[in-house]
Design brief:
With 352 residues, the chain is of the alpha/beta class. It contains eleven helices and 13 strands.
């Protein structure tokens, strides 16, 4: 007779195969499953780990267990791909386009670059089974959109700058946990002990992961303090609303309680920098500031912003390598390739 944890594994696997749990759906927690089967937490945990080892689910520590596509290995054999990018003037888009063209040309890929204006349009085009699709930074926030996109693309879709591995979609990104830990380490090295996180749009995957890591660290009595979020502010245009929020925090005395701020992107960090200048809050003497992205704007600030590069060229290299493995038949079913984030230390954290 099989051990109990293997029996539970088999029952869960059968439920996934039969569609009782949809692709991308979160399973009940181990504690809930343990109560259902009237077994210990450890027994269920072993069963879930077995499911992960067999590619039925992905384990996102701190967020849950999610059903994924099982690797099918059915890929187009020709080197044809469509590259989809958002309609935006963000400086990273030029970096992405130039790097991906260079990489694809080196491997003799035929490519077409398309600018996307809607998720619906994107999903329809990704359904083309004759070629691969690469999507960059489309900032999907709705579960339904992510699910439909991934269902449309299956094994032919590769994401850059986004992590949808729980859907079984190949992707290249950075580890958001490592990004936040790098930022905190820099703050602590600068002698800052009361640090706030400035984020927006908690429906966005990156922002949600940043906050999840932050809150885990904040649970420690000696950890950083989680203060602010902009969950009601449109991600693409936070400037006016952010400045208004900062005014409220300033009047409420929140700035007196902190000596460092980590911003989840450069744009918000620049707004913060300007706010501090207008309110005579010295950076970095009174308040240290770390940003994420290092999009090119960080060097324009005074003082220049310490920022964390999300290593976009390295992500593109990873993505093209995944494509090559699929075409050549050497893909091993590992859908996520992480690039190493890099701390770029500048004047906003360094006392001269």
């Amino acid at each position: 007779m099989k051990p109990q944890y293997l029996q539970i594994r088999d029952e869960l696997a059968e439920s996934i195969i039969n569609g009782e749990y949809a692709v991308g759906e979160q399973l009940p927690s181990c504690r809930e499953l343990a109560a259902k089967w009237k077994v210990s937490y450890m027994t269920v945990s072993k069963a879930v780990n077995e499911l992960a080892a067999e590619n039925f689910v992905d384990l996102n520590h701190g967020r849950g267990v999610f059903v994924r596509w099982r690797h099918e290995g059915k890929f187009p054999t020709s080197r044809n791909i469509r590259i989809f990018i958002p309609e935006s003037s963000h400086p990273y888009l030029d970096i992405f386009k130039n790097t991906v063209k260079q990489q694809l040309e080196a491997y003799n890929w035929k490519y077409e670059v398309l600018t996307m204006q809607s998720v619906k349009e994107l999903i329809n085009l990704v359904r083309d089974t004759s070629c691969y699709s690469m999507v960059y930074g489309f900032e999907l926030s709705k579960y339904e959109d992510i699910r439909d996109l991934c269902n449309a693309g299956r094994e032919r879709l590769i994401m850059v700058g986004e992590r949808y591995e729980r859907f079984g979609i190949s992707s290249s990104a950075v580890d958001n946990s490592q990004v936040i830990r790098l930022a905190i380490a820099e703050m602590q090295a600068a002698g800052r002990k009361k640090i706030a996180l400035l984020c927006s749009n908690l429906n966005h995957m990156d922002e949600a992961e940043y906050v999840a890591v932050w809150q885990n660290l904040s649970a420690d009595a000696n950890g950083p303090e989680y203060l602010w979020d902009l969950k009601l502010v449109p991600f693409s245009s936070p400037r006016e609303s952010l400045y208004q929020l900062l005014e409220e925090k300033f009047k409420n005395g929140m700035f007196d309680k902190i000596d460092g701020i980590i911003s989840t992107d450069d744009e918000k960090a620049l707004i913060m920098n300007n706010f501090c200048y207008d309110h005579k809050i010295d950076i970095p003497k009174r308040l240290a500031l770390v940003a994420v992205n290092d999009s090119g704007m960080a060097e324009l600030a005074r003082p220049q912003l310490t920022s964390i590069s999300i290593a976009l060229p390295a992500q593109v290299v990873n993505a093209v390598r995944l494509l090559e493995e699929k075409v050549s038949g050497t893909f091993n079913g590992i859908n996520l390739r992480l690039a190493e984030p890099l701390l770029i230390r500048r004047g906003s954290t360094r006392l001269s």
